[in-house]
Amino acid sequence: MKVAVVGSGVSGLAATWLLNEHSDHEVHLYEADNRPGSHANTVGFPSKEGVNVDSGSVRNIF
Questions:
Q1: What is the pLDDT of residue 62?
Q2: What pLDDT shows up at residue 46?
Q3: β-pairing, 51-55 with 41-45?
Q4: Domain residue spans in the chain?
């Protein structure tokens, strides 16, 4: 059976991994953005040290 997982957020990545590891299904992962992870992301924080910051799944609009 062919399975399409739409979205590569945490749930989509987990579903894809589990189906690949524990089933004989042909699994395809589709993502509209240019990177996986959805809202979870690592971004560079502008500082002298060049610190990377992991953002959670909820973004602050301020």
A1: 55
A2: 84
A3: antiparallel
A4: 2-55
Over range 41-62, report the average pLDDT: 76
| Closest to 60 (Cα-Cα) out of 48, 47, 43, 46 | 43
Nearest to 38 by CA among 20, 13, 62, 18: 13
pLDDT at 55 over 60: yes
- Report the DSSP beta bridge partners of residue 34: none
CA–CA separation, 42 vs 52, rounded Å? 6
Quick one: three-class SS letters along the chain? CEEEEECCCHHHHHHHHHHHHHCCCEEEEECCCCCCCCCCEEEEECCCCCEEEEECCCCCCC
